[in-house]
Task: structure prediction
Amino acid sequence: MEILETRNKFITNEEVFKHIKSTRYEFLKPPKKNYHKMNNTMFEYEILTKKLMAYFKKTPCNHQNLETVKKYVTKELSKYELEVIEKFQIVNLVPKSTVNLYSIVEECDARFSEEQCENIISSLREYFPDEFKDVEEGGEADEEAGNNVDADGDEHMADVEQDPEEVQIEKEQKEQVQEKQQEEQEQEEEEEEEEEEEGDMDRDDELVNGGTHVVEDYEGGGNGDDD
Amino acid sequence: MFILSKISDLVQVKPEFFDINLKKAIIRELNSKYANKVIPNLGVGIAVWDVLDVQDGLLRPSDGAVYYKVIVRLIVFKPFVGEVLIGWIDSSSEQGIKIKLDFFDEIFIPKDMLFEGCYWNESENLWVWRTDPEDPESDVYFDVNEKIQFRIEEEIFTNIKPTGPALDDEEEEEEEQQQVAAASKGDKTSEVEVKPPKKDLTPPPYALIASCQTEGMGAISWWG
Result:
């Protein structure tokens, strides 16, 4: 392995979120039927992406989408002379007050007037209204209430967004399970007919069980992500 | 927080993946190789972003796999120094506060990088910030699992070498055997020391030092 270019580009959390979300299921399901569990090398990837999703769902990028971010950066932030990394951080963190903005933008008070800062915050409120809901509803003390609102929002989002890919995968998995069950039934019938070869049949059963375990595991992974 | 790094690598595509799309097979192989791994002096590998170039495959004698030299862009977790991140307090100690980010836990705020006026509350086991030095009621708490913002100050890479065959263990076993033998003889003068369980003291390969001492840092509700 050779590193050709350490920092080719910065990317926003939102982009990573969408990229992982759209590609992870492809790598989590077995590449083909009867692919044995022991050959599964995507274990680390599965855990990492699951944790990443959990993190992103708790941060502003959960409510963002690429189009509004692009629109926001080109229309609003281009008015001000901000560094690239400052723009990235504004999008990633969505500062809710000028104090938070000051912490992101270096020497903010010298470079921008208070009015400009207020404008940045109000434009953020306009483009990413979901982020400001917690602040307005919860106030200062109600951390828990804010969290609850967040959790509900997540579930709602998950319900709406999970569907197309996952339903497809679940269908495939169900088909696989059905096939396995058919095989098992056939084998049982054979077993009744040929009681002599018990040892061999036991081994086959194990294999089949192993196969269904794989399927169950993958289902578990998929469902766990929804929570 | 996340960057794209351009890397080149030699990828082995096993025969069982010959019937699926080549790019997908390569991405699959690289994802399993780099996901959640610390790349020295770079950061934590996450996943492949896109494949830029795939050269012709190479075969090796007595090997069914094909080897491709590829150039890809990898998503890497590498916050720059000075970046502000959102995280949650994992645990507190007298030395400082440990932060977790779900997927990355090696972030530490030393006590001298907290706000001025912070003190360690022994009975509650957490750090407290007295925002107004003369008013004891102005305390705010760094509770466990509090969502806070912090600034990255330093990144530390440690080169962890693989441990060789466990020679030390054999010596220890011999010692233990001697001790057991001595004890069985009824030699009460040689006290058998109870060794404390070994702690894993190897430093993490990639750790971040953060600070929490300027305006806007700490819990978001403090600055509402």
Remarks:
- Confidence is low (pLDDT under 50) at residues 138-163, 195-227 of chain A.
- Chain A touches chain B through 55 residues (CB under 8 Å).
- DSSP finds eleven helices and one strand in chain A.
- The first helix of chain A runs from residue 13 to 28.
